[in-house]
Design brief:
This protein is of the alpha/beta class. The chain has four domains: 203 residues, 3-Layer(aba) Sandwich (Rossmann fold), CATH 3.40.50.300; 48 residues; 226 residues, P-loop containing nucleotide triphosphate hydrolases (Rossmann fold); 74 residues, Helix Hairpins. It is 42% helix and 21% strand. Helix 7 packs antiparallel against helix 8. The relative contact order is 0.09.
């Protein structure tokens, strides 16, 4: 095994009286591709700063291989003292580094080098910070949310560049596709400790669920053991004082262990306040065009959006995505063409500018508008504390100023404000920025259950694939085309990524070369089919799963009787065994149904 380039041992850190870490261990060797996963507020960014040497822990040691070079990408880069982006990037170079790399990387990232850092947008600032980090070609790259504010073109370029580097990488990101493509191992920061596996992010979620399920079983066993010992304390105390004292001390230890147990953080309870249904037609655009000066933003674009559609808009920064969405929703008139909005439309909007609120405003005031302690959700009053908890805020955060919130907390706040308004059309601009993976899951489920229409701008490829029913992509010179399906479907139909000319436009140039080649085409793969047994299982498994769930609920209710073990030990053991068997059968049935459902979708889409 290669010696570590950097190693943390027994790291502990306390903020505000509560321990953030306790006994954290982390090791990074040459060539590692480690993704650091955890809920918002779990301390991922703080731990990465400890790895970078920017924060001193309360306890523990940090070892760095002598001579190893480290570069850190912060979420919010500091440009103070730099007149141009080129000066900022060159300042990150060490003696002996190639200075041409600074200008080269800025050019690759779409910057010229003469930009004033004070006037950079969020995406431009992130690209300048990436160039500064990558230019020295260090031994270790520490990357905190590298895809935030980046467009898809830049994200895919960054993926390709990082994949070719020899540097060890420790990355924090909410972008599932980015993590899945680059990571080879995973460190899960959960409730102050780290669990690590030598598997990439694509296998993390299944492993995490196994760990939490095992933890739940252990807690159930602990509860049962406490019940047994309490029964002994009431009815089984013997005359042997020494033995009794020892056993009583053991019961106190079990109770303390149960009391100190910190269960996993709950999920956000995202729900959009829905208005009455809109008409079947939501938006109809015919031949709309818009230009800023000589530049065409939208040119002769037409689309019909019906109730229930989920439309994703993608493209490079500056392509005109926000302008297009403003025209479609009637907020901005087109230069030519017509927009027809459907009847009974109620629009709720989430924009990407989260700094529009006064940073000194408290969290509660931002939700209530400064009007008492009630927030209007779907036209009905709710106490602000209860609504905060739905979005994973703690009661004591009510008076926290917005400037003290993390990026993920600000993201949840903006979602809470947008979803409180009754709507049947949600317009979301970069809703996934800074959200942790679990909250992203809940957001996806909420959008899936939402009965209205959704139009969103996103650079998260996995999110687009999971949520949208069609994608609108730019083709250059103000031309936009709608593609059925998610982001991956768009690429398959378009024949190129967003950095290149689509296959349709290049088709005529490819015809000659296709005819010239004499290599025979590969035979198409035989079409897969579902057997009779597969079809029968797909139809009957949902009933089987429901039956097993009912059985599990019944057995669990019997086992929840705290007196059962004392009254009938044999029955307790019998029910425990039956419950374990039912859980295994339920899991196997769900897994089999999922396999068959994926096979069915694959066959139907072939």
């Amino acid at each position: 095994m290669a010696p570590p380039l950097i190693q943390l041992k027994d790291i502990a850190l306390t903020f505000g009286g509560a321990p953030l870490f306790d006994g954290v261990e982390l090791s990074v060797s040459a060539g590692d591709r480690l993704c650091l996963i955890g809920r918002n507020g779990s301390g991922k960014s703080t731990l990465l700063k400890i790895v970078a040497g920017l924060i001193e822990p309360d306890r523990g040691s940090r070892f760095v291989q002598p001579g190893a070079t480290i570069r850190y990408l912060p979420q919010e880069p500091d440009f103070d003292g730099f007149k141009t982006t080129l000066a900022y990037v060159e300042a990150g170079l060490a003696p002996g580094d190639e200075h041409y790399q600074a200008a080269y990387l800025l050019e690759q990232l779409g910057l010229h080098g003469d930009e004033d850092p004070a006037n950079l947008s969020g995406g431009e600032a992130r690209r300048a910070a990436l160039a500064r980090m990558l230019a020295p070609d260090p031994d270790i790259l520490l990357i905190d949310e590298p895809t935030n504010h980046l467009d898809l073109t830049t994200i895919e370029w960054l993926e390709s560049d990082l994949a070719q580097r020899k540097s060890a990488i420790v990355m924090i990101s909410h972008d599932r596709r980015f993590l899945g493509n680059l990571s080879r191992s995973t460190a899960w920061l959960d409730r102050g400790v780290i669990r690590q596996i030598d598997r990439g992010f694509s296998q993390f979620e299944a492993w995490r669920d196994e760990v939490l399920a095992e933890e739940e079983r252990d807690q159930h066993k602990l509860d049962r053991k406490i019940v047994m010992e309490e029964h002994w304390l009431r009815y089984g105390v013997s005359g042997r004082r020494k033995r009794n004292v020892k056993r009583l001390a053991g019961l106190h230890e079990l109770r303390a262990q149960r009391r100190d147990y910190r269960g996993p953080t709950g999920s956000a309870n995202l729900a959009a306040a829905e208005a009455d249904k809109s008409g079947k037609l939501v938006i109809e655009a015919k031949g709309i065009s818009k230009a800023w000066g000589e530049r065409a933003i939208v040119d002769n674009f037409s689309i019909r959006i019906n109730r229930g559609d989920r439309i994703g808009i993608v493209g490079p920064n500056g392509a005109g995505k926000t302008t297009l969405i403003s025209i479609l929703t009637g907020a901005l008139p087109p230069d030519s063409g017509s927009i027809r909005l459907g009847t009974n439309l109620e629009v709720a909007t989430l924009d990407q500018h989260r700094d529009s609120l006064d940073a000194r405003t408290s969290l509660a005031e931002a939700l209530t508008g400064g009007r008492g302690d009630q927030v209007m959700v779907g036209g009905k009053p709710r106490h602000v504390i209860g609504y905060m908890k739905d979005f994973l805020f703690k009661q004591e955060q009510a008076r926290t100023p917005l400037e003290a919130l993390s990026g993920g907390e600000r993201g949840r706040l903006m979602l809470a404000r947008a979803l409180a308004k009754p709507s049947n059309l949600l317009v979301l601009d970069e809703p996934t920025n800074d959200l942790d993976l679990e909250t992203l899951d809940v957001l996806e489920e909420m959008l899936g259950d939402y009965e209205g229409t959704v139009i969103l701008i996103s650079h998260d490829r996995d999110f687009l694939d999971r949520v949208v029913t069609s994608v609108i992509a730019p083709e250059g010179d103000g031309k936009w085309i709608e593609y059925a399906g998610g982001y991956s479907d768009m690429l398959a139909q378009r024949g190129a990524d967003l950095t290149r000319q689509p296959a349709k436009a290049a088709a005529s140039a490819d015809v000659t070369s296709a005819k010239a080649t004499s290599t025979p085409a590969a035979a198409p793969a035989p079409k897969r089919k579902m057997s009779f047994n597969d079809k029968h299982a797909l139809e009957t498994l949902p009933k089987t799963i429901a039956k097993l769930e009912a059985e599990i609920a019944k057995l669990q209710a019997e086992l929840d009787d705290p007196q059962l073990y004392a009254k009938d030990r044999a029955k307790f053991d019998k029910i425990s065994a039956a419950l374990a068997k039912a859980h295994d059968e339920h899991q196997a049935a769900e897994h089999r149904w999922l396999e068959l459902e994926m096979l069915r979708e694959e066959i139907e889409s072939a």
